[in-house]
Amino acid sequence: MVSVLRNAIPRDLARHRWQYVAIAATVAIGVALFAASSDAFTNLKVSYARTYDRLAFADFAVTGGDIAGFVDQARAVDGIAEVAERRRADVPIRIGGDHSLLGRVSEIPDDGQPSVDRLDIIEGSTATAGSGAVVLERHLADHFGLGPGDVVELNTAGEWSQFDVAGVAASAEYIWPARSRQDILTSPDDFGVVFAPPDVVDRVAPDPEHQALVTYETGADAATLDARLRALADQVGASSVELRADQPSNAALQEDVSGFGEISFLFPVLFLGSAAMATFVLQGRLIRSQRAQIATLRANGLSTTSVVTHHLAEGIVVTTVAGVAGLAVGLPLGRIVTGVYTDAISVPDTVTRFHWSTVVVGLLLSVLTGLVATAAPAIAAARTTPGDALRAEVPTGAGGRSLVERVIPPLRALPARWRMTLRGIGRNKRRTATTGIGVVLALTLILASWGMVDTVDILLERQFQQVQLQDAQLVVSGPYESAIADVQQVPGVDRVEPVVDVPVTLRFEDASYATELIALEQDTQMHSFGSATLPSDGFVAGRSLASELGVTTGDVVVAELGSTSVSAPIVAFVDEPLGTLVYTSLSAVESTVGPSAIDSLLVTFTPDADPSAMRENLSALGFVVAYVDSRSLYDTARGLLSLFYAFVGVMLAFGGVMAFALLFNTASVNASERAPELAALQLNGVSSGQLSRLLAGETMLLTVLSLIPGLLVGYWVSAQLMGSFSSDLFDFGLQIRGSTLVLSALAIVAVAALAQWSMVRAVARLDIARVVRERSS
Amino acid sequence: MTGNLDPGTIVMDHVSKTYRRGPSEVHALRDVSLRIEPGEFVVLLGPSGSGKTTLLNVLGTIEPPSAGTVTVSGLPLAEQRGGDLTDYRRRQVGFVFQFFNLVPTLTASENVEVIAELVGADAEQRAVDALERVGLGDRLDHFPAQLSGGEQQRVAIARALVKDAPVLLTDEPTGSLDLDSGRQILGLLRQAADAGHTLVLVTHNSAIARIADRIIELGDGEVRDDRRVDSPLPVEEVAW
To answer: What pLDDT does residue B46 have?
Structure first.
């Protein structure tokens, strides 16, 4: 590049500093978001991997069947590092003598430390055989403020036994304390885990599940081993197998991690795309305004390479400097996000590393943004022929009535100045397209983030207020019939129903799926199945079962319930937000599972009942060994949304910045391009206020028109994004409230109005003398 | 307030205009005093840099003078601010430039109508009348891109005339036109002056100056000569 041209770069940048600042801000946010989300994504993966490695998190788990036989055969398989046996049982826990909840006892060996799914003792010590003590999983301990020396009670057949707390531990199995894949959202108020040595398990769990846990050697082919062990599990008659990817805690956490992965791609694309368009518009205008000078320089021997390099450099300098600023913010932000996240959900290990790849990709993205945005205007500049130097700039826009005037003829009767506004919308196709796309990108960003919150919020509301209708679930000991009668007597109780909730493995042809079978009264009022009803013989299943098993309604599946099984057809599928459960009527399974399986009651309260008092009164009934408060679970889940709301607030602000930057530039370029005709109109009596209103009317009208495609595209992208998170654990079909669409649109309109400031300022400061002089020169 | 001067009367009293260009000062106008009567066709003649465009700009309130006073139709321009300034431009002066500066998305009649709407009712009909006066009655619905340069300049003149402002300020109106088109434009301007408009035309072309009633020659920001033309040259005889 010629050195004199190089000197012109800072001058050009200074002359249009606010426009370049707007572009730089958009690029910086895009690169910062990329760096923060990409680093958080990588850091979280590494953090989990370190915890999983340190605590020997099981690669494969099998439940039921001949576990001893499985262990013997698995140990002989090449690539297997460890195989451990353990027992596990769901046992009610009571804290402080009055707070009973669903509990789980997980066996640890005599020495207190398993070889697979090891415990990370964070307080006190582990519990060894004969100590009469247990170790509490950290979420339970943290929630109730328990530690070494405290006491918890475990229930067996209606009898409570006290155990000392030896210590508090973190476990890779319960980083996210999910009770099962089908019960992924739990509150520590309602569910907790204790780790107990064999003698304690003997006392409290007369009929535990037997499990084998397997870890693979480093570098082993996991897929091959998974298949090999699955075959072994089938041979020994296992009731279920669980790969690491399916393990409830890991599966839930991977949903979040993949969310960071999606965001690290989608959001930077939106910002950098928007910045590229703003740069394209601005550089295009700059080059058009300099075409005579460029052509003159060309006529005097300046090479096309010098012209192209000069203009490319202008764009790239801005985006690269902004990219560096974005990285300077994004890299520490990624560490902060990782730390806040791992702290919020108590991930035992937090790994934050500096990733050169993030720096390189971030810089590449910055340079590419400038390069792509400036290439077309720079090439156009190089193609300017010397002859162009002799001709004045041709005003943009051919004549012609606007589409809207042709569609709505009465608009032709509008005052001429407003017809000017209508036609101004399509006057510069590039500016029109850029403004429209800017609105679409900003709305996409806002809806993609706001849509996540709305979806989760609405789905939780559906799950806890329209699907699950009970106010509480009571786990009872003893005959359920008398329990129902006693519970019904408690003031504030409206209705009581028995329920069976047992693990089940469904099989259809070669496919199997482990889930839970919920059996309710056929005319239950505790659960809504939409238009479906519970059959007397057959299953109603969550929608995902169709793809998991490859079944459709009418297909007969085998439901394996421990040592027995039932064959029945799928009569209907239901769309439920959480889990993929299978439902049937009590009468259909009572003979199979036996009356002892009916150990829970679902309860609804009268409208005036106080939930806290109801918990106290119902827990006081001697036969109630665990109490699950549906409202507290709902409140806990909604509490998690507060983090999401902060995220949406930030994205709304960023979306506003993005839209503002683009609209600010298009508005100022609009005023700049039309300076001669604006000067002529002003000199002939049109006030600067009127001119501002006419130009603002164009952009605002275009913005409003762009809202329609913006909302459609934003909705579609949001649906794709949410769809990518959907699995058999969660149904994330996009839900967006009408108010969200309206508020998003209004936010964009407000930003567009604010962005007119640049144009209003340009019109008010229009240097008519200079415009006239430059046109005359 | 129009004072006691007739509409179209221009009075400049000891007007100077100085620009700062870095450390140095450029004196574009130096102590210019003159009076132009209503209906006069005055040409400001001079070479590039003589101050003629600056003088026109001062009259049009594009630039304020550094010293001295300017009164148009009895209005002291120094006192025109904000709404008053817009009202002055709307009712007292019309502008025509070398480049036509039409709005490309509006038809010929709409370009005129935009201005007509500012000063009274029946804007559409007045725009048509103005275009017919400049001989473009058959080009009303043409967009600027469909008009020749001369035709576009005629639209610009119609735009300036439609307000019926007493003063018409024109800056090299034939500068980008061929001879025939230029003659047509000059003819229209002559007609406007004959109809009572005070007309100030800036040119560096002495041939064009000969159609005026009065020629004010500027040089280095000063009035070098101010003479009446006893027999203005008929427009059709102008050649350059």
So the answer is: 92
